[in-house]
Amino acid sequence: xxxxxxxxxxxxxNEKYLKNLRPLARVGLIYSQQSAWxxxxxEAREKIDEPALGFYEALVEARIPFEMVHDRCLxxxxxxxxxxxxxxxxxxxxxxxxxxxxxxxxxxGGLVATYETSLYDEWGVHRxxxxxxxxxxxxxxxxxxxxxxNSYMSLEQDLSTNSMHPLxxxxxxxxxxxxxxxxxxxxxxxxGQFTPLRIVPSYPDLPMESVFTRPGATHRPGVYMQRVGNGxxxxxxxxxxxxxxxxxxxxxxxxxxxTVEWATNEASPVTVEGKGILDVALWEQKNSMxxxxxxxxxxxxxxxxxxxxxxxxxxxxxxxxxxxxxxxRVHLLVASRDVPYRTExxxxxxxxxxxxxxxxxxxxxxx
Length: 367
Description:
Blueprint: H1 2-13, E1 22-23, E2 27-31, H2 33-40, H3 44-62, E3 66-70, H4 76-79, E4 84-87, H5 95-106, E5 110-114, H6 133-136, E6 138-145, E7 152-155, E8 176-178, E9 183-188, E10 197-200, E11 224-228, E12 231-236, H7 240-247, H8 250-264, E13 270-273, E14 278-284, E15 288-295, E16 316-320, E17 327-332, E18 337-338, E19 341-344, E20 347-351, E21 358-365
Parallel strand pairs: 2-3, 2-4, 4-5, 5-12
Antiparallel strand pairs: 1-14, 6-9, 7-8, 7-10, 11-12, 13-16, 14-15, 15-21, 16-20, 17-18, 17-21, 19-20
Helix pairs in contact: 2-3, 3-7, 3-8, 7-8
Protein backbone atom coordinates (compact mmCIF):
# COMPACT_ATOMS: atom_id res chain seq x y z
CA UNK A 1 0.00 0.00 0.00
CA UNK A 2 2.21 2.83 -1.26
CA UNK A 3 -0.13 5.55 0.01
CA UNK A 4 0.34 4.38 3.62
CA UNK A 5 4.11 4.42 3.21
CA UNK A 6 3.91 7.94 1.78
CA UNK A 7 1.74 9.19 4.66
CA UNK A 8 4.00 7.79 7.38
CA UNK A 9 7.17 9.05 5.73
CA UNK A 10 5.71 12.54 5.41
CA UNK A 11 4.54 12.50 9.01
CA UNK A 12 7.96 11.35 10.23
CA UNK A 13 9.73 14.09 8.28
CA ASN A 14 7.40 16.80 9.67
CA GLU A 15 6.64 15.42 13.11
CA LYS A 16 7.70 18.49 15.06
CA TYR A 17 5.13 20.56 13.19
CA LEU A 18 2.36 18.15 14.18
CA LYS A 19 2.96 18.30 17.95
CA ASN A 20 0.29 20.93 18.51
CA LEU A 21 0.04 22.92 21.71
CA ARG A 22 -3.19 24.75 20.92
CA PRO A 23 -5.47 25.71 18.05
CA LEU A 24 -5.45 29.37 17.04
CA ALA A 25 -9.01 29.30 15.69
CA ARG A 26 -11.30 31.83 17.34
CA VAL A 27 -14.57 30.12 16.47
CA GLY A 28 -15.91 27.03 18.22
CA LEU A 29 -18.71 24.86 16.79
CA ILE A 30 -20.58 23.11 19.62
CA TYR A 31 -21.69 19.50 19.22
CA SER A 32 -23.94 17.76 21.71
CA GLN A 33 -24.40 14.05 22.29
CA GLN A 34 -26.93 14.70 25.02
CA SER A 35 -29.06 16.66 22.54
CA ALA A 36 -28.79 13.77 20.07
CA TRP A 37 -29.75 11.19 22.71
CA UNK A 38 -32.45 12.93 24.73
CA UNK A 39 -33.88 15.45 22.26
CA UNK A 40 -33.14 14.03 18.82
CA UNK A 41 -33.68 10.34 19.49
CA UNK A 42 -34.65 8.56 16.28
CA GLU A 43 -34.60 11.93 14.50
CA ALA A 44 -31.09 12.90 15.65
CA ARG A 45 -29.78 13.00 12.08
CA GLU A 46 -32.32 15.64 11.08
CA LYS A 47 -32.49 17.57 14.34
CA ILE A 48 -28.84 17.57 15.44
CA ASP A 49 -26.46 16.38 12.73
CA GLU A 50 -27.85 18.39 9.82
CA PRO A 51 -27.82 21.79 11.59
CA ALA A 52 -24.19 21.15 12.58
CA LEU A 53 -23.32 20.08 9.03
CA GLY A 54 -24.91 23.25 7.70
CA PHE A 55 -22.67 25.46 9.83
CA TYR A 56 -19.70 23.19 9.10
CA GLU A 57 -20.27 23.67 5.37
CA ALA A 58 -20.71 27.43 5.73
CA LEU A 59 -17.52 27.86 7.79
CA VAL A 60 -15.46 25.77 5.35
CA GLU A 61 -16.78 27.71 2.35
CA ALA A 62 -16.04 31.00 4.15
CA ARG A 63 -12.51 29.76 5.02
CA ILE A 64 -13.05 30.57 8.68
CA PRO A 65 -10.82 28.47 10.98
CA PHE A 66 -12.90 26.69 13.64
CA GLU A 67 -12.71 23.85 16.12
CA MET A 68 -15.33 21.39 17.36
CA VAL A 69 -16.24 21.85 21.05
CA HIS A 70 -18.09 19.19 23.06
CA ASP A 71 -20.99 20.52 25.14
CA ARG A 72 -19.50 18.89 28.24
CA CYS A 73 -16.45 21.15 27.84
CA LEU A 74 -18.08 24.55 28.33
CA UNK A 75 -16.01 25.43 31.39
CA UNK A 76 -14.01 28.65 31.20
CA UNK A 77 -10.69 26.87 30.65
CA UNK A 78 -11.90 25.07 27.53
CA UNK A 79 -13.81 27.93 25.89
CA UNK A 80 -11.54 30.85 26.86
CA UNK A 81 -9.46 30.60 23.61
CA UNK A 82 -12.57 31.21 21.50
CA UNK A 83 -14.14 34.50 20.60
CA UNK A 84 -17.38 33.00 19.26
CA UNK A 85 -19.34 29.84 20.01
CA UNK A 86 -21.94 28.47 17.58
CA UNK A 87 -24.91 26.42 18.83
CA UNK A 88 -26.62 24.76 15.82
CA UNK A 89 -29.93 23.73 17.40
CA UNK A 90 -28.24 22.56 20.61
CA UNK A 91 -31.67 22.03 22.13
CA UNK A 92 -30.77 20.11 25.31
CA UNK A 93 -28.71 22.20 27.72
CA UNK A 94 -28.58 22.07 31.51
CA UNK A 95 -29.00 25.14 33.71
CA UNK A 96 -25.29 24.97 34.46
CA UNK A 97 -24.37 24.85 30.76
CA UNK A 98 -26.63 27.84 30.09
CA UNK A 99 -25.00 29.76 32.96
CA UNK A 100 -21.54 29.03 31.53
CA UNK A 101 -22.63 30.30 28.11
CA UNK A 102 -24.06 33.47 29.64
CA UNK A 103 -20.76 34.03 31.45
CA UNK A 104 -18.87 33.53 28.19
CA UNK A 105 -20.91 36.27 26.50
CA UNK A 106 -20.67 38.65 29.44
CA UNK A 107 -16.87 38.34 29.32
CA UNK A 108 -16.91 39.47 25.69
CA GLY A 109 -17.67 36.32 23.72
CA GLY A 110 -19.93 36.05 20.72
CA LEU A 111 -22.77 33.54 20.54
CA VAL A 112 -24.74 32.30 17.52
CA ALA A 113 -27.72 30.01 18.12
CA THR A 114 -30.56 28.60 16.06
CA TYR A 115 -34.06 27.16 16.34
CA GLU A 116 -34.78 25.26 19.60
CA THR A 117 -31.39 25.82 21.27
CA SER A 118 -31.79 25.58 25.09
CA LEU A 119 -35.57 24.94 24.88
CA TYR A 120 -35.01 21.58 26.62
CA ASP A 121 -33.00 20.60 29.68
CA GLU A 122 -30.13 18.10 29.58
CA TRP A 123 -32.58 15.15 29.80
CA GLY A 124 -34.71 16.37 26.91
CA VAL A 125 -37.50 17.75 29.11
CA HIS A 126 -39.26 20.69 27.43
CA ARG A 127 -38.78 24.00 29.27
CA UNK A 128 -41.44 26.69 29.50
CA UNK A 129 -38.91 29.10 27.97
CA UNK A 130 -35.42 29.06 26.47
CA UNK A 131 -32.68 28.54 29.01
CA UNK A 132 -30.84 31.29 27.12
CA UNK A 133 -33.83 33.62 26.66
CA UNK A 134 -32.01 36.53 28.31
CA UNK A 135 -29.29 36.26 25.65
CA UNK A 136 -31.66 35.76 22.72
CA UNK A 137 -33.79 38.82 23.37
CA UNK A 138 -36.85 36.64 22.75
CA UNK A 139 -39.08 34.25 24.69
CA UNK A 140 -40.83 31.07 23.62
CA UNK A 141 -44.42 31.76 22.51
CA UNK A 142 -45.67 28.21 22.82
CA UNK A 143 -45.47 26.58 19.40
CA UNK A 144 -43.22 25.47 16.57
CA UNK A 145 -44.21 25.74 12.90
CA UNK A 146 -43.02 22.86 10.74
CA UNK A 147 -42.64 22.44 6.99
CA UNK A 148 -43.68 25.97 6.14
CA UNK A 149 -44.69 26.55 2.52
CA ASN A 150 -43.52 29.49 0.43
CA SER A 151 -41.67 31.04 3.35
CA TYR A 152 -39.27 33.90 2.76
CA MET A 153 -37.34 36.55 4.66
CA SER A 154 -37.35 40.17 3.54
CA LEU A 155 -34.10 42.13 3.85
CA GLU A 156 -34.60 45.36 5.79
CA GLN A 157 -32.64 48.59 5.64
CA ASP A 158 -31.85 50.33 8.93
CA LEU A 159 -33.65 53.66 8.49
CA SER A 160 -31.74 55.23 11.40
CA THR A 161 -28.45 54.83 9.51
CA ASN A 162 -29.85 54.55 5.97
CA SER A 163 -27.70 51.47 5.42
CA MET A 164 -27.82 47.67 5.44
CA HIS A 165 -26.68 45.80 8.53
CA PRO A 166 -23.38 43.83 8.27
CA LEU A 167 -25.47 40.62 8.41
CA UNK A 168 -26.65 41.52 4.90
CA UNK A 169 -23.23 42.08 3.34
CA UNK A 170 -23.34 40.82 -0.22
CA UNK A 171 -27.13 41.12 -0.58
CA UNK A 172 -27.35 44.52 -2.27
CA UNK A 173 -29.17 42.99 -5.24
CA UNK A 174 -31.76 41.10 -3.17
CA UNK A 175 -35.06 42.07 -1.60
CA UNK A 176 -35.85 38.73 0.00
CA UNK A 177 -34.33 35.27 0.39
CA UNK A 178 -35.63 31.78 1.19
CA UNK A 179 -36.55 31.32 4.84
CA UNK A 180 -35.90 28.27 7.02
CA UNK A 181 -38.21 25.26 6.78
CA UNK A 182 -39.14 25.12 10.49
CA UNK A 183 -39.66 28.03 12.86
CA UNK A 184 -40.07 28.55 16.60
CA UNK A 185 -42.78 31.08 17.44
CA UNK A 186 -41.17 33.65 19.76
CA UNK A 187 -42.05 36.95 21.40
CA UNK A 188 -39.46 39.76 21.17
CA UNK A 189 -38.27 41.26 24.44
CA UNK A 190 -38.17 44.63 22.65
CA UNK A 191 -40.81 44.85 19.93
CA GLY A 192 -39.33 48.11 18.64
CA GLN A 193 -35.81 46.79 18.10
CA PHE A 194 -34.55 46.90 14.51
CA THR A 195 -34.02 43.58 12.75
CA PRO A 196 -32.43 43.22 9.30
CA LEU A 197 -34.56 40.15 8.49
CA ARG A 198 -38.32 39.82 8.66
CA ILE A 199 -40.33 36.68 8.00
CA VAL A 200 -42.83 36.82 5.16
CA PRO A 201 -45.72 34.67 6.44
CA SER A 202 -46.05 31.42 4.54
CA TYR A 203 -48.92 30.82 2.14
CA PRO A 204 -50.25 27.84 0.13
CA ASP A 205 -48.35 26.41 -2.81
CA LEU A 206 -51.54 25.09 -4.47
CA PRO A 207 -53.93 25.77 -6.11
CA MET A 208 -52.18 28.33 -8.30
CA GLU A 209 -54.79 31.04 -7.72
CA SER A 210 -53.94 30.91 -3.98
CA VAL A 211 -50.18 31.31 -4.38
CA PHE A 212 -49.68 34.91 -3.27
CA THR A 213 -48.46 36.84 -0.23
CA ARG A 214 -51.34 37.68 2.10
CA PRO A 215 -51.70 41.45 2.58
CA GLY A 216 -51.74 42.86 6.09
CA ALA A 217 -50.01 39.87 7.67
CA THR A 218 -47.50 40.53 10.45
CA HIS A 219 -43.86 40.18 9.40
CA ARG A 220 -42.08 38.89 12.50
CA PRO A 221 -38.32 39.22 13.05
CA GLY A 222 -36.27 36.54 11.31
CA VAL A 223 -33.24 37.13 13.50
CA TYR A 224 -32.57 38.61 16.94
CA MET A 225 -29.31 40.43 17.66
CA GLN A 226 -28.16 42.15 20.78
CA ARG A 227 -25.13 43.12 22.78
CA VAL A 228 -24.93 41.51 26.21
CA GLY A 229 -22.18 42.66 28.52
CA ASN A 230 -19.13 42.91 26.28
CA GLY A 231 -20.36 40.22 23.90
CA UNK A 232 -22.66 39.87 20.91
CA UNK A 233 -25.49 37.39 20.42
CA UNK A 234 -27.37 36.34 17.27
CA UNK A 235 -30.40 34.06 17.48
CA UNK A 236 -32.31 32.64 14.49
CA UNK A 237 -35.74 31.26 15.47
CA UNK A 238 -35.66 29.13 12.31
CA UNK A 239 -33.51 26.13 11.41
CA UNK A 240 -31.57 28.15 8.84
CA UNK A 241 -28.46 25.97 9.31
CA UNK A 242 -30.30 22.70 8.62
CA UNK A 243 -32.04 24.33 5.64
CA UNK A 244 -28.67 25.38 4.23
CA UNK A 245 -27.41 21.81 4.48
CA UNK A 246 -30.54 20.56 2.73
CA UNK A 247 -30.63 22.99 -0.21
CA UNK A 248 -27.13 24.59 -0.19
CA UNK A 249 -28.50 28.03 -1.09
CA UNK A 250 -25.68 30.52 -1.56
CA UNK A 251 -27.76 33.13 0.28
CA UNK A 252 -27.90 31.01 3.42
CA UNK A 253 -24.16 30.36 3.29
CA UNK A 254 -23.43 34.09 3.05
CA UNK A 255 -25.86 34.85 5.86
CA UNK A 256 -24.27 32.31 8.20
CA UNK A 257 -20.80 33.63 7.34
CA UNK A 258 -21.84 37.23 8.00
CA THR A 259 -23.47 36.21 11.26
CA VAL A 260 -20.31 34.56 12.60
CA GLU A 261 -18.17 37.52 11.54
CA TRP A 262 -20.50 40.04 13.21
CA ALA A 263 -20.67 38.02 16.44
CA THR A 264 -16.89 37.55 16.48
CA ASN A 265 -16.23 41.27 16.01
CA GLU A 266 -12.49 41.00 15.47
CA ALA A 267 -10.10 40.51 12.58
CA SER A 268 -9.54 36.89 11.62
CA PRO A 269 -6.08 35.49 12.50
CA VAL A 270 -5.76 34.33 8.88
CA THR A 271 -7.25 35.13 5.50
CA VAL A 272 -6.85 32.87 2.47
CA GLU A 273 -7.89 34.26 -0.92
CA GLY A 274 -8.08 32.39 -4.19
CA LYS A 275 -10.12 29.92 -6.22
CA GLY A 276 -11.55 26.70 -4.85
CA ILE A 277 -12.82 25.41 -1.51
CA LEU A 278 -10.23 24.99 1.23
CA ASP A 279 -10.62 23.74 4.77
CA VAL A 280 -8.42 26.09 6.81
CA ALA A 281 -6.95 25.17 10.21
CA LEU A 282 -4.38 27.04 12.30
CA TRP A 283 -2.23 25.59 15.11
CA GLU A 284 0.66 26.66 17.32
CA GLN A 285 3.57 24.42 18.34
CA LYS A 286 6.45 25.07 20.73
CA ASN A 287 8.62 26.94 18.22
CA SER A 288 6.32 27.30 15.22
CA MET A 289 2.81 27.70 13.89
CA UNK A 290 1.22 25.83 11.00
CA UNK A 291 -1.52 26.75 8.57
CA UNK A 292 -3.19 23.66 7.10
CA UNK A 293 -4.93 24.05 3.74
CA UNK A 294 -6.95 21.00 2.67
CA UNK A 295 -8.23 21.16 -0.90
CA UNK A 296 -11.92 20.18 -0.90
CA UNK A 297 -12.64 21.45 -4.40
CA UNK A 298 -14.66 18.46 -5.51
CA UNK A 299 -18.33 17.54 -6.01
CA UNK A 300 -17.77 14.75 -3.47
CA UNK A 301 -16.26 17.06 -0.84
CA UNK A 302 -18.73 16.22 1.95
CA UNK A 303 -19.28 12.59 0.97
CA UNK A 304 -15.92 10.97 1.71
CA UNK A 305 -15.10 8.79 -1.32
CA UNK A 306 -13.32 11.45 -3.39
CA UNK A 307 -12.40 9.86 -6.71
CA UNK A 308 -10.30 12.63 -8.23
CA UNK A 309 -8.08 15.38 -6.84
CA UNK A 310 -8.73 18.70 -8.58
CA UNK A 311 -5.77 21.06 -7.98
CA UNK A 312 -6.44 24.73 -7.23
CA UNK A 313 -4.38 27.77 -8.16
CA UNK A 314 -2.03 29.43 -5.71
CA UNK A 315 -3.55 31.19 -2.70
CA UNK A 316 -2.87 34.65 -1.25
CA UNK A 317 -2.44 34.45 2.52
CA UNK A 318 -2.23 36.93 5.37
CA UNK A 319 -1.30 35.39 8.70
CA UNK A 320 -1.27 37.06 12.10
CA UNK A 321 1.76 36.15 14.23
CA UNK A 322 1.11 35.50 17.96
CA UNK A 323 2.28 38.25 20.29
CA UNK A 324 5.91 37.97 21.37
CA UNK A 325 6.90 35.71 18.46
CA UNK A 326 9.50 36.54 15.80
CA UNK A 327 9.50 34.81 12.43
CA UNK A 328 12.75 33.19 11.30
CA ARG A 329 11.53 31.10 8.34
CA VAL A 330 8.40 30.32 6.32
CA HIS A 331 8.27 27.10 4.31
CA LEU A 332 5.83 24.64 2.74
CA LEU A 333 5.79 21.12 4.15
CA VAL A 334 4.18 19.44 1.13
CA ALA A 335 6.05 21.35 -1.57
CA SER A 336 9.23 21.00 0.58
CA ARG A 337 10.58 24.48 -0.05
CA ASP A 338 10.84 27.92 1.48
CA VAL A 339 8.37 30.56 0.37
CA PRO A 340 9.03 34.33 0.21
CA TYR A 341 6.97 36.56 2.48
CA ARG A 342 6.72 40.15 3.62
CA THR A 343 5.96 41.49 7.08
CA GLU A 344 3.72 44.36 8.14
CA UNK A 345 3.42 44.94 11.88
CA UNK A 346 2.31 41.56 13.34
CA UNK A 347 1.16 40.04 10.03
CA UNK A 348 2.99 38.20 7.26
CA UNK A 349 1.85 37.99 3.64
CA UNK A 350 2.70 35.24 1.15
CA UNK A 351 1.44 33.27 -1.83
CA UNK A 352 1.42 29.51 -2.25
CA UNK A 353 2.02 27.57 -5.46
CA UNK A 354 -0.93 25.52 -6.80
CA UNK A 355 -2.30 23.06 -4.22
CA UNK A 356 -3.17 19.44 -4.97
CA UNK A 357 -4.55 17.50 -2.02
CA UNK A 358 -3.22 19.77 0.72
CA UNK A 359 -0.48 22.14 1.79
CA UNK A 360 0.92 23.13 5.17
CA UNK A 361 2.50 26.55 5.67
CA UNK A 362 5.03 26.25 8.51
CA UNK A 363 6.21 29.41 10.24
CA UNK A 364 9.32 28.91 12.40
CA UNK A 365 9.96 31.25 15.32
CA UNK A 366 13.28 32.43 16.67
CA UNK A 367 14.26 30.70 19.89
